[in-house]
């Protein structure tokens, strides 16, 4: 066997994945988009759907698509506004391109890192993506390049994919690249470079080995992929690096067989999330619940519904981390903390009401839970 070939390994079970596809897999020679490699990627997505799984695509390629509209590929020194214009022109082409390859409805989702750093906008994006997956659509996520100057300049859709993986509670982050996986040296410069098939924990040495971009159309390289894997690992999500230009690798991946590099998560997703919920700083005030609601939270692991809420104290907003307290004849005591789906003002209006009444009372709703059980940790 070729000493430099990756051997086949079993991919752990997964139900939801984020798949990052870079420009090098999508760009056609001379500008525009090519289905040459994308068809096999789409076949993998379709096979995953047929197996009852969900896939969110984080796709580069808008600038490459836009270059075909204006018949020009920007050089590395092109003004930022030019690259932003190409991204704006190419975004519709990119979504149409994915729709032509997939049988399910494709939904465009444009995000910036600012959207994902702001807790309320983060929660809104998460709710929207969850609804799209519930409707069996394929979200295609990209950075909102026309307003994200820094993100477009850095081109780190790899890291965006890691953030989206945490956003949607993915089981695995799949990064399709144009080489077979991670090596202990740059295989283009060192013929004796050997595959690194499993990484228990990313080290400074491995990050140092990673080089820059190997493509004229992509702006990311192996280092950004490892940085994304490091971010995903810290969120409790494993990462897989594989060659998206090889149809046989994608076909094997659809059978849970990996020819590439698997990077383990440091901890489980549940452990990471619960640790954050238990240790992050809460907003002043909180949500007061009755004994029935407290029992449902503590004994049954249920979500907090408005019917069990007595009051909201303080002036917190939707998406804030707040304390949940039980108030009864024995006094007041903390029982949990979680991310509120509604502001304190909204909760005061829907307290003691049925979840079905939220829309009529508020004129809108963010779901029937005041705090979803996935966003709640007992104290």
> Structural class of the secondary elements?
alpha/beta
Biggest β-sheet description: 8 strands, mixed
Which percent range describes the beta-strand content? 15-25%
Distance between the termini: 55 Å
Q: Tell how many strands the DSSP assignment holds.
A: 17
CATH topology of the largest domain: Carbamate kinase
The number of helical runs is 15
Strand arrangement, major sheet: 4-5-3-2-6-10-12-9
Measured on Cα atoms, how large is the radius of gyration? 23 Å
Which CATH first-tier class of the largest domain would you pick? Alpha Beta
CATH H-level homologous superfamily name of the largest domain: Acetylglutamate kinase-like
Average pLDDT taken over every residue: 87
Shape: globular
Task: Kindly state the percentage of residues in helix.
Answer: 25-40%
For the record, the CATH architecture of the largest domain stands as 3-Layer(aba) Sandwich
Unreliable parts: 151-155, 213-220
């Amino acid at each position: 066997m070729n000493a430099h070939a990756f051997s086949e390994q079993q991919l752990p079970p997964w139900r939801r994945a984020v798949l990052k596809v870079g420009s090098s897999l999508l760009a056609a020679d001379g500008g525009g988009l090519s289905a040459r490699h994308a068809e096999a990627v789409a076949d993998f997505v379709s096979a995953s759907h047929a197996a009852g799984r969900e896939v969110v695509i984080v796709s580069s390629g808008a600038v490459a698509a836009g270059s075909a509209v204006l018949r020009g590929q920007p050089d590395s020194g092109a003004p930022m506004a030019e690259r932003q214009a190409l991204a704006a022109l190419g975004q519709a082409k990119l979504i149409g391109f994915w729709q032509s390859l997939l049988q399910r409805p494709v939904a465009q989702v444009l995000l910036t890192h600012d959207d994902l750093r702001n807790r309320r906008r983060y929660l809104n994006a998460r709710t929207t993506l969850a609804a799209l997956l519930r409707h069996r659509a394929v979200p295609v996520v990209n950075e909102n390049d026309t307003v994200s100057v820094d993100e477009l300049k850095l081109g780190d859709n790899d890291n965006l994919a890691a953030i989206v993986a945490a956003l949607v509670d993915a089981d695995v982050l799949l990064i399709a690249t144009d080489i077979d996986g991670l090596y202990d040296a740059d295989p283009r410069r060192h013929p004796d470079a050997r595959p690194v098939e499993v990484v228990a924990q990313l080290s400074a040495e491995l990050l140092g080995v990673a080089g820059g971009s190997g493509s004229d159309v992509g702006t990311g390289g192996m280092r950004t992929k490892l940085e994304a894997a490091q971010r995903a690992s810290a969120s409790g999500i494993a990462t897989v690096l594989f060659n998206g230009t090889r149809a046989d690798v994608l076909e094997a991946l659809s059978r849970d067989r990996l020819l590439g590099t698997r990077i383990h998560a440091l901890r489980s997703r549940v452990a990471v999330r619960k640790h954050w919920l238990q240790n992050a700083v809460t907003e002043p005030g909180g949500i007061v619940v009755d004994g029935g609601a407290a029992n449902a939270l503590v004994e049954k692991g249920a979500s907090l519904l408005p019917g069990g809420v007595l009051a909201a104290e303080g002036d917190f907003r939707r998406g804030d981390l707040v304390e949940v307290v039980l108030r009864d004849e024995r006094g007041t005591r903390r029982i949990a903390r979680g991310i509120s789906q509604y502001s304190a003002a909204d909760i005061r209006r829907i307290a003691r009401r049925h979840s079905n009444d939220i829309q009529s009372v508020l004129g809108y709703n963010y779901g029937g839970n005041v705090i979803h059980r996935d966003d709640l940790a007992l104290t």
